Amino acid sequence: MENKQELERMIRSMVMNIMNGTDTGVSASEGSLPDEPGVFSTVNAAVAAAKQAQIQFEECTLATRGKAIEAIRQSMRPLVNKLAQMTYDETGMGRVADKIIKLNLTLDKTPGVEDLVTECETGDNGMTLYELSPYGVIGAVTPSTNPSETLICNAIGMLAAGNAIFFSVHPGAKKLSRWLVSELNKIVADAIGINNLIVTIAEPSIEAAQEMMVHP
């Protein structure tokens, strides 16, 4: 427990230093790109912003998480046809009609906060309560085959668990993915007032994905 508290203290200190521009690794000017909230120029800046957002999000109620997820479902539904067409236009993979079906399935069936079930064990030695807690900032890799479905599904599931997400998207679907990450970020921010819970970088690459995988 002491090690966990010390680690959290160090992370909070590091994030605040980064956001204030006092850490030599990231400048305070490295915010999200103009008109594209949630989209950053570097992995480090994106992760730092996501961690700051997650610290706030972790203190929110399950009802607040549910509100963010419901906002995603409601806001994305009118865009399903557009997302399917954008994906096909950029990647050339699959069929638009099939992507529409997959997107609707993602919005309807991806589990949210209802999956966070508390469990309890009792016996001769007392009672143990199990509650699922957030991990922090999750690094997620998305494909070029179903980029919009994967982004939305992962965002819903990971936000439900109280996490923020850095998406390392496939370069073959970067335009659609970049646009969608920014839209999801705006939807969540409008719903619950926390920015940068869903982030990415403007120019994805193999090197950027590797940087994410070893990021502290």
Q: Can you describe what's shown?
A:
The protein is of the alpha/beta class. It has 8 helices and 6 strands, in the order H-E-H-H-H-H-E-E-E-H-E-H-E-H. The strands form 2 sheets. The chain has a 4-stranded parallel β-sheet with strand order 1-6-5-4, sandwiched between helices. The longest helix is centred in the N-terminal third of the chain and has 19 residues, at 2-20. The chain is globular. Residues 18-29 have low confidence and may be disordered.
Give average pLDDT, whole number.
Answer: 88
CATH topology: Aldehyde Dehydrogenase, Chain A, domain 1
- Quaternary state of this entry equals single chain
- Poorly predicted regions: 18-29
C-alpha Rg, in Å? Answer: 18 Å
Count of folded domains: 1
Q: Count helical runs.
A: 8
Strands, count: 6
* Main beta sheet: 4 strands, parallel
CATH class assignment = Alpha Beta
Structural class: alpha/beta
CATH architecture: 3-Layer(aba) Sandwich
